[in-house]
Amino acid sequence: MFFSLKNNIKKYFLKQDAKPLFIKNNLEKNFIDFNLCRFGKKNKNKVFYVIRRSPGAGMFSNFIFVLNHLLIAEKNKFIPVVDMQNFTTIYNEKSKINNSYNAWEYYFDQTSNYSLKEVYQSQNVVLSNQKFQPNMSIGLNNTHKRLLRKIKIKNNIKYKANNFFKANFKTKEKILGVHFRGSTYKTARRHAYPSTIDEMIKNLKYLIKYYKYDKIFLVTEEIKYLKKLKEIFKEKIVSYPSFRMDKVDSFYIYPRKKHRFKMGEETLIETIILSKCNGLTYVDSNVIKAAKAFSSKKQMDHEIFFGYNSTNKYIARWKWFLKVYFPFLFGRIKRVRKYY
After folding, report:
1. Do the domain assignments include residue 127?
2. Are 120 and 221 found together in one domain?
3. CA gap 338, 10 in Å, rounded
4. For residue 165, is it within any domain?
5. How far is 48 from 36, CA to CA, in rounded Å?
6. What is the pLDDT of residue 13?
7. The pLDDT of residue 229
8. Count of structural domains within the chain
9. Of 270, 293, 302, 335, which residue is most buried, by most CB within 10 angstroms?
10. Whether 125 contacts 36, CB under 8 Å
11. CB of 54 within 8 A of CB of 104?
12. Which of 285, 288, 259 is nearest to 91 (CA)?
């Protein structure tokens, strides 16, 4: 009875992280006690650095994680290779994508010219830690931006993003990119509070009036946000046809073929489109950091900030909701920095 009660408490009061769709990790048992490995006799004069993270997190959390380890490889003159095949992420599928089981290679070219097969037949292989270390940046910084040239986005993904932008926006139109986070951002500890729908509407009306934006490119994972903003701003709203959730986290369901791969692809495409906008309004996130890093133009910055959620995972699970629905008891979500 006590065990059942404990499980119910976890289910209803503590959010569980999304898990990989499957685990294909026969190598992990060999790596528990050491990170320097010898797998075979090949490449005796080379040192490979396997970048691994399982189960990982969101697309650009994984992306920044890889950038941090590319820096380590560069400093030590190791040959980097990303392994999201044996160390699976929440984006991995059971079948091959782009002829690969490696989730990194779904979206990006490999970081060296060596295959995982050859690396795991080599004499000198260093395995990365799987967690962010205290000295690592969890956001894109200037050092990371220099390393971006080492990461090549798949051409078919860039093609989809560029085609969508050309089809939906005219050359002389002034475009406002909007990243309107909801879902798990409401409960993420140590993260900035996401905006409420009312605050976002107020924000967009102001920006359209005073900065003369012609169109809004909206990125949101919540279908109710998209519907409400389309209702108010009508033809000004443009959005990529990404999957959007209603009440259930998108990684806890599998409603379409290649769903997990598509979740990552859609995030990457939307980020590329955000990088092409004239201005951005957002609550800070890795997606926005990546969009700014990818951008070749000087974008106007309209960040909105409501403060940070608790560092305690139990409190963070409820704090945003308590402030939104019971502001008379817990204080309402309000902007810390204002320009109106």
Report:
1. yes
2. no
3. 38
4. no
5. 10
6. 44
7. 97
8. 2
9. 270
10. yes
11. no
12. 259
Name the one residue in this structure whose structure tokens are 């205290």: 134
Instruction: List Cα–Cα distances, 129 to 1, 5, 51, 203, in angstroms.
Output: 39, 36, 8, 41
pTM for this model (two decimals): 0.85
CA distances from 331 to 202, 223, 327, 328 (A): 19, 27, 4, 6
The range of the structural domain enclosing residue 145 comes to 13-150
Residue 128, helix vs strand vs coil: coil
The per-residue DSSP string of 165-225 comes to: HHHH--TT--EEEEE---GGGGT-TTSBPPPPHHHHHHHHHHHHHHH---EEEEE-SBHHH
**C-alpha 217: how far from its chain's center?**
18
- Tell me, yes or no, whether 1 lies in a domain: no
Residue type (1 letter), 185: Y
62 three-state secondary structure = helix
Domain contains 337:
no
Q: Encode the chain (340 residues) as per-residue pLDDT tens digits.
A: 444 544 544 444 444 455 554 444 444 443 333 478 899 999 999 999 999 999 998 999 999 999 999 999 998 899 999 999 999 999 999 999 999 999 999 999 999 999 999 999 999 999 998 988 888 887 777 778 888 888 999 999 999 999 999 999 998 999 999 999 776 766 666 667 678 888 899 999 999 999 999 999 999 988 999 999 999 999 999 999 999 877 677 888 888 999 999 999 999 999 999 999 999 999 888 899 999 999 999 999 999 887 676 777 777 776 656 766 777 666 667 776 555 4
Instruction: Report the alpha-carbon distance of residue 98 to residue 90 in Å, rounded.
Output: 17
Kindly state whether residues 204 and 141 are assigned to the same domain. Answer: no
Residues 101 and 269: beta-carbon distance below 8 Å: no
CA distances from 323 to 187, 189, 249 (A): 12, 15, 22
Same domain, yes or no: 79 and 177: no
